[in-house]
Amino acid sequence: VFSSKENFPHLPGVQYTVRVDLTEPVEEERDPPAEDDALVARLRAGDREALGQIFLRHANPVRRLLVSVMGPSDEVEDLVQEVFLSVHRSIAGFRGTARFSTWLHRIAVNTALSVLRRPRRAVAVEPEDLDRHSDRASGVDTAVLVRERVRRLYAILDAMTPKRRVAFTLFELEGRSIAEVAEMTGVALAVAKSRIFFARRELVKRAREDAYLAPLLDELRR
Amino acid sequence: MTDDTRHSRPGKPLLGEVRDALHSSAAMGPARLELEKRRLLARLEAAEEVTAVSEARNPRTRRWLVAAAAVLLALGGAAMWRVLDEGERARVPVALAGLWRLSEGDALSSGSPARVPGDRGAKIVWPDQTAIWLGPDAEISLAPPAAALVRFRQGRLLASVRPVERGGSFRVSTPAGMIVVHGTAFSVTGDSRRIALRLYEGRVTFEHAGKEIALTPGSELVMEHGRSPEVRKVDDMGVLADLMIAERTAALAGPPVPVLGTRFEMSPIDIVVTRPAPAGLDETPPERPSKRRPKTAKPGGASGLAEAPQGQPERDLFLDPEIEAIEVKAAEAPGDEDPAPLIEPMIQKGRYPACVDAADAYLEAHPGGVYAERVQFLKGYCQTRSGNLKAGREAFETYLVRFPEGRYWKRVSDILGE
Q: Which positions in chain B touch A89 (Cβ < 8 Å)?
């Protein structure tokens, strides 16, 4: 690990300390966009194996994104495949004005949206015993507590409109900026912002009634 | 990833925990990635093949597909879908919203409709030996979990379902309602306008418009659009047709075809019997025979002619020049006697092999006899009912070839699924 002070071009005069962890490969260096461009060209030429290479390069980020949006779900495996099949079908329409990965993630978001728009069976979340909750919250079994929190969070998200859910999960769980959320969902910045706002408000309202989620309230309000 | 800008939002440790919990097992290792990559490429290949099939309507590609179909036909008369392993989820490219035509070795689709080619049959076997047989052009889809729900859309489906626990976990949805199977042998035929459900063994219930109709073995439920459900005895012709589906797939692995219709009384065969014209037809106008004769008719005894109202000429059958020609020919063939009085009691008593022998004896003695058409039909019927499905099929096919204008032609076509 080393540190160095850098000047950020978009913030002249401001210095940041940048830490680079050399124990893990840096994605940008390992997967330069130029390689994507070459693979896209091959795929356009009908080389099926190019899709396999694209899959190897991008499947994990796409999977992470889908997990964030869909939550713990058996569907994710198939959805990842659907995303890359869509890439194959739509590659002729990729103009190259954006980076390939941006375009790919937009496809992933649209795939998730199409699944979320289908009628789904609501997951019943039982009312929680506060005593049990306090035992767990005391740190007896943090992993179980977090898993339960995840389950309940997504039970609330299941009841939300798919657009709000996607905006919220991309922003809060995927850590995307509002600009990125807007770009990935194909809406204006203000629309993305309002979706995140209303999703948060809905979550806060529902989380108040849930002992597992109550500790999240402060974070959701920020 | 080239633009992985994910990061934990500062000051939100609990949401960070949620994110970490979600993603703790999200990343696929190299081996898993490779496996998923292969699966992706296999799906891509399958999608391209099906796309090619769906382009059959395009005249430019039809010619190639006809050639491919001919090759498939030459390879065998039936398609077998891959047997599912326990808990296996069948997969098919979801992108294929259209019809999925299966060929030998294909994986079952989950959700996407699958259609059996018009010249083939198909058989699906579950790990517990539950099996369904599908006739030509049958269209179904399987729904998860574990494909225990079969969505039947059209065609003919024969099922032998292992006894299931109380409450039932095997269901067949049809355009008219849901069949809840409790361990049984049954068939369902029809399409969105008419559904006929025949129960051979065990118990099924049919859920329709919030009501449940329970069937007993030997009964048949007919649902027609705009009409009330009707329950009646199983129709004998339907049994033959069900058996013939199974015959198409008899060569395939899996459990044998269930024995159908031996433990209950079926509705009688609707046999049209014509009486040969009396000798000297050219001198005396033929009398009009009845179209039907009771199955209990005795040899040389009561006939449609004797039962006809007095004084009325019975000519309608003789108005058909074909039949008249046959009758004339019959008059020219002495010794050509109606074997029905011999054969029908055999059928009633279930002595099908004896019936086949009698039919063979007649056909050998009178290959062009006036009764040959009906006897050929009865031979096919008895062969099928005796369990010799292949011979039954051959007899029926002979019927279709020899008697293209025959009275049972449509029925035989239906039975064979032609």
A: 95
Phi (first) and psi of residue B328, to 5 degrees: -65, -40
Using a CB-CB distance cutoff of 8 angstroms, which residues of chain B are in contact with residue A222?
A: 11-12
Tokens of B155: 């065609």
Neighbour-count burial for A112-144, b at 16+ CB within 10 Å, e otherwise: beebbeeeeeeeebeebeeeebeebeeeeeeee
Buried b (16+ CB within 10 A) or exposed e, B16-54: bbbbebbbeebebeeeebeebbeebbebbebbeebeebb
pLDDT values of chain B reduced to their tens digit, one per residue, 418 residues: 444 445 556 677 778 888 888 877 667 888 778 878 888 887 777 666 444 333 333 444 334 333 333 323 223 333 333 333 333 333 332 222 233 444 444 555 455 567 776 666 777 766 667 777 777 777 877 765 444 577 888 888 888 877 665 455 677 888 788 887 777 777 888 877 888 898 888 888 888 777 888 888 888 888 887 788 888 888 777 788 887 777 766 666 666 666 665 556 666 554 433 333 333 333 333 333 443 333 333 333 333 323 333 443 333 333 333 333 333 333 345 566 777 777 877 877 778 888 888 888 888 888 777 788 888 888 888 888 887 888 888 898 888 878 877 778 777 887 776 5
Q: Are B270 and B408 in contact (CB under 8 A)?
A: no
The single residue listed with the structure tokens 């049959």 is B121
Strands B114-115 and B100-101: parallel
* A169 in reach of chain B (CB within 8 A): no
Report the complex ipTM: 0.75
| Phi, psi of B127, deg, nearest 5 | -60, -30
* Residue A101 CB coordination number (10 Å): 20
Please check whether residue B248 is in contact with residue B417, taking contact to mean a CB–CB distance below 8 angstroms: yes
- Our CA-based measurement puts residue B38 at a distance from the nearest CA of chain A, in whole angstroms, of 8
Amino acid, single-letter form, for residue A106: R
Chain-chain contact of B2 with A99 (C-beta, under 8 angstroms): yes
Are A68 and B23 inside 8 Å of each other by CB? Answer: yes
Q: Which helix (H) or strand (E) holds B67?
A: helix B59-75
Residues 50-109 of A with CB under 8 A from B: 51-52, 55-61, 63-64, 67-68, 71-72, 77-78, 80-82, 84-86, 88-89, 99-102
Measured between beta carbons, the chain B residues lying within 8 angstroms of A63 are 26-28
Give backbone dihedrals phi and psi of B360, rounded to 5 degrees, phi first: -60, -45
Best A169, A174, A217 residue to mutate vs chain B (most B CBs within 10 Å): A174
* B residues 47-86 closer than 8 Å to A (CB): 47
